[in-house]
Amino acid sequence: MPRSRRAVPLDDTRPFRPTRARPVRVRSRHMTADAHFEPHRHAWAQLAYCASGIVQVSAADAGTASGEVTYIVPPSRAVWIAPGAQHSVHVLEAAQFRTLYVDASVAPADWTGCRVLVVSPLLRELVQALDAAELPRGREELLTALVLDELAGAAQQSLGVPLPATQTGDKRLRALCEAVLRAPAEKATLAQWAATVGASERTMARLFRDQLGTTYQQWRQQAVLAHALPLLARGVAVSEVAAASGYASESAFTAMFKAAMGQPPSRFQRRDPPAA
Predict the structure, then answer these.
(1) Within a 13 Å sphere around the CA of 114, how many CA atoms are in the beta-carbon half?
(2) Per the domain annotation, does 16 fall within a domain?
(3) Are 61 and 85 spatial neighbours (Cβ–Cβ below 8 Å)?
(4) DSSP H or E segment with residue 222
């Protein structure tokens, strides 16, 4: 049974609001599992990043065919949210949530949609340094410049699960996508899934292409990754995650995961600190 979400009130953002003079601000919060921020938007860009734990970010994204994408964000990744984009956040595993608010004046001009960025070790340390209390202005300016430079050069990764728009998308496609997300281990073909929503395989293949800009197989892989990452973050064995994701063998799952993420699934597993 899925755990219930606990809505967190949207508090005052004025102390962290970026400006042209201070274009990058860091807001650090410890978020408990299942905490949830309802859909909202900012005039500035945002980089959703957690130093530990794992969060789910759902965002309206004009840069996609569907206009709505859900991202799973482990500590080695971050989601760039364009200025004005409506988004919500759900904490899947207790997280040290470090949000970067970036003034629109310094946001990359062509970053109009949302995207997943790989967080380099340097960027991780820069964010932590910028989060220090009573930071001297000169040091803040230097760190800000380095953060912006590291962001501009960060590798991007396809790690979002697009969904049909609630109001304008095809209801059959939405129902099929939600069914797959509820049963990621199900090995049904597209034809079998299509039959459950009263459509043909050809029709659903066209809807995936036209409304989500992807094939069913590509979309399902993203859905599997979104399912697997929180399990790995909880420390579940790779073999168990593979089985829960519909893979007959750990090796096949690992090969798919490494091809998609650039690292084996073991790199995303929680590692508890050694006992003192």
Answers:
(1) 32
(2) yes
(3) yes
(4) helix 216-233
Mean pLDDT value across the chain: 86
The CATH number linked to 93 is 2.60.120.10
The answer to whether 269 touches 235, Cβ cutoff 8 Å, is: yes
Q: Between the CA of residue 162 and those of 141, 178, 186, what are the distances in Å?
A: 37, 11, 19
- Torsion sign across C-alpha atoms 39, 45, 50, 54: positive
State the Cα–Cα distance between residues 82 and 165, nearest whole angstrom.
18
Q: Which domain holds residue 75?
A: 6-160
Residue 1 scores a pLDDT above 80: no
Task: Flag whether pLDDT at 84 surpasses 80.
Answer: yes
Task: Look at the chain and report how many structural domains it folds into.
Answer: 2
pLDDT band at 275 (very low <50, low <70, confident <90, very high): very low
| Nearest Cα to Cα of residue 176 among 209, 214, 210, 220 | 220
Torsion, CA 127, CA 128, CA 130, CA 132, rounded to 10: 160
Query: 3-class DSSP state for residue 103?
Result: coil
Place of tokens 């209390």: 133
Q: Give the max Cα distance, the chain.
A: 63
Residue 14 has pLDDT above 90, yes or no: no
- Decide: 245 and 220 in contact? Cβ < 8 Å: no
Q: Are residues 141 and 190 in the same domain?
A: no
What residue has token string 């597993």? 269
Give the total residue count for the chain.
276
